[in-house]
């Protein structure tokens, strides 16, 4: 449950940061904006990877 909450939190924070930086027209680094977008987009996969790891470990 803790991992799900953390995944959702990082997803929301990363997406909001990327959105705010992109919308206000600041001259931030494009790489930073892309990294924030990736955090928001890929964070839910942390939960999936954890579940897969536990399945493989249990076998």
Count of β-strands: 0
Unreliable segments of 5+ consecutive residues: none
Please summarize the sheet with the most strands: none
Radius of gyration: 15 Å
Mean pLDDT: 71
Strand content is under 5%
Task: Determine the structural class based on helices, strands and strand pairing.
Answer: mainly alpha
Secondary-structure element sequence?
HHH
First-to-last CA distance: 22 Å
> How many structural domains can be distinguished in the coordinates?
1
Number of helices: 3
Overall body shape: elongated
Q: What percent of the residues sit in helical stretches (DSSP H or I)?
A: over 70%
What does this structure look like?
This protein has 59 residues and is an all-alpha fold. It has one domain. Helices cover 85% and strands 0% of the residues. It contains three helices and no strands. The two termini are 22 Å apart.
What's a concise summary of this model?
With 59 residues, the protein is an all-alpha fold. It has three helices and no strands.
Write the layout of secondary structure elements.
Elements: H1 2-23, H2 30-42, H3 44-58
Q: Characteristics of this structure?
A:
3 helices; mainly alpha; 59 residues
């Amino acid at each position: 449950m803790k991992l799900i909450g953390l995944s959702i939190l990082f997803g929301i924070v990363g997406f909001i940061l990327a959105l705010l930086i992109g919308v206000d027209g600041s001259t931030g680094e494009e790489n930073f904006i892309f990294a924030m977008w990736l955090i928001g987009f890929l964070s839910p996969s942390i939960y999936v990877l954890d579940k897969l790891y536990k399945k493989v470990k249990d076998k």
